[in-house]
Amino acid sequence: MTAAGSTRKHTALPKARILIEALPWLTRHHGRTVVIKFGGNAMVDEELKAAFAQDVVFLRHAGLRPVVVHGGGPQINAQLDRVGLVSEFKAGLRVTSPEAMDVVRMVLAGQVQRELVGLLNQHGPFAVGMTGEDAHLMTATKRYADIDGERVDLGRVGDITAMDTGAVEALLADGRIPVISSIARSQDDDHVYNINADTAAAAIAAGLGAETLMVLTDVEGLYADWPASDEVISRLTVSELETLLPDLSSGMVPKMEGCLHAVRHGVRTARVIDGRVPHAILLEIFTDEGVGTMVVPDDTGTAAPNATTEGKPS
């Protein structure tokens, strides 16, 4: 063998080791449904968006069945500013007037979804866009917030009351990647409602009997004692999360409530991962360490929340 050939073999070995490390996770997840909530900085950074699309298509080619659920906070804020409407949040949820709802619907289904479908379809004819309105995927009712014991009107913000995942399952059976905007119509008043994307992703994951729910966000995971410490909890049970939930920041509450809902309703694991890390999805699913916080059912024998345990199920 020539010196050049020997060098090529040597430099390729780490790539082979990475692939071998992924083998047990490929085996475990093959044929399973993975619901991914796309949000945070990954939605606005061009390189992160491209890496996200590559990850999702990789999952599809690796034999998994990815489903993408998205919000569009930054894009909605920008469009509301353009039309002179104020962005307001209460209890971590966007207050949505009828005028703001028109903007939300336009941005989610007409801008964010189309861009994401286009990015995914650069790699093949996989992605199909839909909203929670389509085929009655999600049915909603008006939601109120409870702030300091007072009922607060959030406008056109909805709670999911029913799911019909038949259209999504048909797309998955056809080898497609559903890309779902988090809006839904009510049977009560025929209004269209803004559904928190974390909540929508959790409900869809539960409805599909998904293997895992992955929520992309702009933090490393759930911190054990923020702001006193930046130690990330790698793994915790439903009961442990229930204990921590009242003390979480308002922005993290819908994400962790979504994780709780998913795992309580049959999803094997729910994970909050740092969407600022390129290819975070692949790192979480196909490496031994993972990146972020994973929520598991109570009967898995996990360590306490502040323990630095391995980020993968045994």
What key attributes describe this structure?
single chain, eight-stranded mixed sheet, 39% helix
Task: Tell me what you see in this structure.
The structure is a single chain. The protein is 39% helix and 25% strand. The protein has nine helices and 16 strands. The strands form four sheets. It has an eight-stranded mixed sheet with strand order 5-8-2-1-11-15-16-14, with helices on both faces. It has a four-stranded mixed sheet with strand order 7-6-9-10. Helix 3 (73-82) crosses helix 4 (98-121) and helix 6 (197-208) runs parallel beside helix 8. It is globular and about 60 Å long.
Uncertain stretches: 301-314
Spatial sequence of strands, sheet with the most strands: 5-8-2-1-11-15-16-14
The tally of strands reads 16
Q: Give the end-to-end Cα distance, rounded to a whole number of Å.
A: 42 Å
The biggest sheet amounts to:
8 strands, mixed
CA radius of gyration: 20 Å
Derived structural class: alpha/beta
Helix content: 25-40%
Strand portion: 25-35%
Global shape: globular
Number of helices: 9
Task: Outline the secondary-structure elements.
Elements: H1 3-29, E1 33-38, H2 46-61, E2 65-70, H3 73-82, E3 89-90, E4 93-94, H4 98-121, E5 127-131, E6 138-147, E7 150-163, H5 166-173, E8 177-181, E9 183-186, E10 192-194, H6 197-208, E11 212-217, E12 222-223, E13 232-233, E14 235-237, H7 238-244, H8 253-264, E15 269-274, H9 280-286, E16 293-296
Parallel strand pairs: 1-2, 1-11, 2-8, 5-8, 6-9, 11-15, 14-16
Antiparallel strand pairs: 3-4, 6-7, 9-10, 12-13, 15-16
Helix pairs in contact: 3-4, 6-8
